[in-house]
Design goal:
- This protein is α+β, with helices and mostly antiparallel strands.
- The protein has one domain.
- Helices cover 17% and strands 24% of the residues.
- The chain contains four helices and four strands.
- β1 and β2 form a beta hairpin.
- The protein is extended.
- It starts with a strand and ends in a 25-residue tail after the last helix.
Length: 123
């Protein structure tokens, strides 16, 4: 196996690992962080906003592994591999590994809109 590590606070490590069959997987791990923190980093992997509606309080140790092939954060990782060889999808991994379900729905979210930008002038 080969891999690369990216340090991402507050989560300890996000590791992309290429398995023996050439299919990339992503592992997200943390010790003692809130589920809301997980909801803040999942959007880069699911391609949409994730809102924590679990109601879970406290800190948890979390490990989540899924196929990079379905993740928008890993462009160019697609293969023509059969589905059974690709590994767990980001959309099923939370349910299978953590008992948490990603559901598509509507919820109010904060949005920052920048409607104009100018280069600073020299003084």
């Amino acid at each position: 196996m080969s891999g690369s590590r990216v340090h991402f606070s507050p989560w300890r490590v996000i590791t992309a690992v290429t398995s023996h069959n050439g299919i990339a997987t992503i592992k997200i791990s943390s010790s003692s962080h809130a589920i809301t923190d997980l909801a803040e980093i999942l959007p880069r992997h699911v391609g949409r906003v994730v809102v924590d509606q679990t109601g879970l309080r406290g800190n948890f140790t979390v490990g989540l592994r899924f196929s990079a092939e379905d993740s928008p954060s890993s462009p160019g990782t697609t293969t023509n591999s059969p589905v059974e060889e690709r590994g767990t999808s980001i959309f099923t991994a939370p349910r299978e590994q953590l008992g948490l379900e990603l559901k598509s729905g509507k919820a109010p979210v904060d949005v920052l809109v920048i409607d104009h930008v100018e280069l600073p002038t020299e003084n």
